[in-house]
Amino acid sequence: xxxxxxxxxxxxxxxxxxxxxxxxxxxxxxxxxxxxxxxxxxxxxxxxxxxxxxxxxxxxxxxxxxxxxxxxxxxxxxxxxxxxxxxxxxxxxxxxxxxxxxxxxxxxxxxxxxxxxxxxxxxxxxxxxxxxxxxxxxxxxxxxxxxxxxxxxxxxxxxxxxxxxxxxxxxxxxxxxxxxxxxxxxxxxxxxxxxxxxxxxxxxxxxxxxxxxxxxxxxxxxxxxxxxxxxxxxxxxxxxxxxxxxxxxxxxxxxxxxxxxxxxxxxxxxxxxxxxxxxxxxxx
Length: 284
Description:
Blueprint: E1 3-7, H1 14-28, E2 31-38, H2 56-94, E3 100-106, H3 109-116, E4 120-126, H4 141-149, E5 154-157, E6 167-170, H5 175-186, E7 195-200, H6 205-220, E8 225-230, H7 234-244, E9 249-253, H8 268-275, E10 280-283
Parallel strand pairs: 1-2, 1-4, 2-3, 4-5, 6-7, 6-9, 7-8, 9-10
Antiparallel strand pairs: 5-10
């Protein structure tokens, strides 16, 4: 758990992913790896069985041409991937990251991340990949699968990076968000940044007690924090709060039973990732 790992491709989010990953690696004081995954092995490229439709000689010639074409495409994809990685590594070194490693892998992105997870302190991904449908506001399929599969914190980069001066945490008193408070209080990622604790729901004595516990925990860690409770649905409450208070980073739990922590199988966090214009740190 000694590095930040940033997943990059050729999407419009790649520059932002690099910027967020560099910011996180510098704050944490750890190494930074850039990962680009080619999603298939060239030696297993599909070929169509044309036997019976053309003559034997023509079939062999066509299959040979298809194999050569696939090999060429594979080499181009590798060259393109190395170029993306080299550009990212160069930027990181220019911005003061001393330990940078570009990694080009073949296979499934999610399987690769699970394989590397033991080394990683924080994953950084873009909201959408290069094949996502922007017109329909789809989340990238790889992001959805990754959130389900990995157990390390995952920073979902926004479309553009901006300096992070303050952050908010969607807090509901659950085990996941209480662990999130412990993480924030002990992590150099957040040191010196004012924290806003936002709870959606009714203003009850229990809710106030939960927020008081969180605020004291953060104070013990040297954090200035602001607490507030707002009635209404979590997604609407959080979105409005983020906008009105110029929040630069939102911290949320990825899974759970309450509305504020549902993801993919629920609606709240899915909506936040899809519509929120700031980066979101998802906790497991």
